[in-house]
């Protein structure tokens, strides 16, 4: 159960009184999640989501509020946080930072169909097109600058073959991206897996959980999506889902030549990023709560496939 800080009805009713959102009808803890406490809140006027932030860098929360406000203002399918009667979104509840969001429709897609893939690619392309103008800044906490020092922490837990694989890959990425032209930058989601989206049938209800959001290479975000949404359990790319996502994305934001040149390498680097981060959780920095970590082997498998088979050809941008 991912409710690490229980709340009472009276606490939440008092919290709601700061907002123009109605009176509390029911409160339900949400079992999903690994870092924060989440609750479904029903008032006499609407359905809401209440999040208490249990860990992480709390001083960075204003960045997420500003990013979600910005994307919401540009009509992206994101949960723009509710602001109280004084215009303030970020509050404290039970001595934890707290945000209140509208509850978006839908559920996580386990096996996304092509219509869902196209909807996701379209939304991400729209988001990246406008996010290039977002004025906030938070450096990407999981890019190559993070890989360079952090991969040394897990080497002792790996086989000699995997140690060599990881060290060689990081060295290759450093050489490649040091010489490559700068890629288009903007605000990115940073963790847009299937379970960070909601679908009502084939309609995208929302992109959620922006707490890995940052500013950086837009291509980094897109590669994370492909390595989850268009990848089979054995690590192979699914051509139909791959083309559906990338075709819809490029109809909104065509990739520039430098991004096309870096595409195969970015797929490899983001696969290693998740292999490494999951190894760190298992061996170095276990979660603060009693939760089962994700299996690192999944993204080792993806990385090996990308090394063996490369990337599928990128579809051309439609005019």
From TrEMBL:
Family designation: Belongs to the pseudomonas-type ThrB family.
Gene name of this polypeptide: thrB
The organism's taxonomic lineage, starting at the top: Bacteria, Pseudomonadati, Pseudomonadota, Gammaproteobacteria, Oceanospirillales
Ranges of residues in domain Aminoglycoside phosphotransferase: 27-255
Keywords: Amino-acid biosynthesis, ATP-binding, Kinase, Nucleotide-binding, Threonine biosynthesis, Transferase
A GO term, aspect molecular function: homoserine kinase activity
Alphabetical list of NCBIfam families matching this protein: PRK05231.1 (NF003558), thrB_alt (TIGR00938)
UniProt key word Amino-acid biosynthesis: yes
Keyword Cytoplasm recorded: no
SUPFAM superfamilies documented for this protein: Protein kinase-like (PK-like)
Record's catalysed reaction(s): L-homoserine + ATP = O-phospho-L-homoserine + ADP + H(+)
One Gene Ontology biological process: threonine biosynthetic process
Name of the protein in question: Homoserine kinase
Pathway: Amino-acid biosynthesis; L-threonine biosynthesis; L-threonine from L-aspartate: step 4/5
EC identifiers of the protein: 2.7.1.39
InterPro entries tied to this protein: Aminoglycoside_PTrfase, Homoserine_kinase_II, Kinase-like_dom_sf, Pseudomonas-type_ThrB
Broad EC category: transferase
Gene3D superfamilies: 3.90.1200.10, Phosphorylase Kinase, domain 1
């Amino acid at each position: 159960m991912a409710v690490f800080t229980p709340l009472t009805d009276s606490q939440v009713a008092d919290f709601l009184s700061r907002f123009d959102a109605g009176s509390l009808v029911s409160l339900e803890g949400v079992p999903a999640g690994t870092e924060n406490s989440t609750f479904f809140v029903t008032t006499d006027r609407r359905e809401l989501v209440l999040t208490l932030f249990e860990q992480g860098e709390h001083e960075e929360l204003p960045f997420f509020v500003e990013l979600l406000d910005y994307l919401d203002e540009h009509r992206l399918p994101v949960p723009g946080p509710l602001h109280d009667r004084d215009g303030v979104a970020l509050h404290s509840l039970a001595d934890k930072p707290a945000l209140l969001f509208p509850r978006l429709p839908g559920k996580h897609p386990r096996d996304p169909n092509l219509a869902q893939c196209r909807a996701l690619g379209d939304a991400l392309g729209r988001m990246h097109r406008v996010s290039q103008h977002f004025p906030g800044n938070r450096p990407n906490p999981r890019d190559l600058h993070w890989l360079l020092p952090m991969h040394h922490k897990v080497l002792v837990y790996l086989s000699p073959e995997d140690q060599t694989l990881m060290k060689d890959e990081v060295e290759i990425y450093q050489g490649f991206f040091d010489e490559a032209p700068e890629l288009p930058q903007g605000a990115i989601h940073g963790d847009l897996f299937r379970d960070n989206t909601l679908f009502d049938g084939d309609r995208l209800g929302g992109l959620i959980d922006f707490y890995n959001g940052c500013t950086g290479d837009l291509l980094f975000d897109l590669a994370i999506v492909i390595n989850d949404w268009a990848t089979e359990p054995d690590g192979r790319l699914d051509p139909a889902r791959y083309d559906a996502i990338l075709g819809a994305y490029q109809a909104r934001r065509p990739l520039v030549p430098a991004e096309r040149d870096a595409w195969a390498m970015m797929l490899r680097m983001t696969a290693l990023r998740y292999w490494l981060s999951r190894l760190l959780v298992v061996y170095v920095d276990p979660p603060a709560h009693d939760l089962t970590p994700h299996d690192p082997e999944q993204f080792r498998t993806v990385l090996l496939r990308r090394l063996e088979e490369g990337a599928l050809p990128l579809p051309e941008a439609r005019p």
